[in-house]
Amino acid sequence: DIVIGVLALQGDVREHLVALAAADAVARPVRRPEELAEVDGLVLPGGESTTISKLAVLFGLMEPLRARVRDGMPVYGTCAGMILLADKILDPRSGQETVGGVDMIVRRNAFGRQNESFEATVDVRGIEGGPVHGVFIRAPWVESVGAGAEVIAEHDGHIVAVRQGNALATSFHPELTGDHRVHGLFVDMARGYRTAASL
Ligand code: GLN
User: Catalytic residue at 175?
Assistant: First the structure.
């Protein structure tokens, strides 16, 4: 079995656990460094990125998270989770740190305020069977990516999904749609990584 954790400090943890289970992974909440050490991959959920960042520091998880991402652990961030994976935030709030790992600059709340949240169909490179339904809730967009990162989806001329090696990030929330293809892609990435590691 492939074991995928969901960082469970704040945000839509339960929805990711359900989506991962539907994508044939064993899904577990992760709150402590010992729990982080036991997963094959990790999801950083949507929520509020400053809050998650501060709680990660408080729970002693920030350095272990950075270390595992640096080591190549597969990681998938949605919305606030995408912000946490960015090497740089354009407009960080004070005390807001990121885990980093993806060579991209994100702009928080880029699509507007809470009441400007919206849904749209999005073509994602690597996802078969047509576009996904993108739910954007006070979503960030990616201003720019570095040479190592691949843009895999755009909306209205803005980058909304990026992949770099074993890291995946989306501005939108597939965990809220009942369509588990993006989680399936991530679980496949984690399986591939574990297979390669055991060869
Ligand atoms: N606006 C939130 C942030 O900056 C992200 C919103 C979300 O995860 N849906 O953290």
Answer: yes
ipTM over cut 0.90: yes
Name the CATH code of domain 3-198 (choices 2.60.40.1840, 3.40.50.620, 3.90.550.10, 3.40.50.880): 3.40.50.880
Whether 35 is catalytic is: no
- Measured between alpha carbons, how far is 83 from 167 in angstroms, rounded to an integer? 13
Cβ–ligand 1 distance for 77 under 6 Å, the answer no
79 flagged as catalytic = yes
* Residues paired with 76 in a beta bridge: 43, 168
45-70 pLDDT tens trace: 999 999 999 999 999 999 999 999 99
Give pTM, 2 decimals. Answer: 0.96
Give the distance (Å) from ligand 1 centre to CA of residue 69: 21
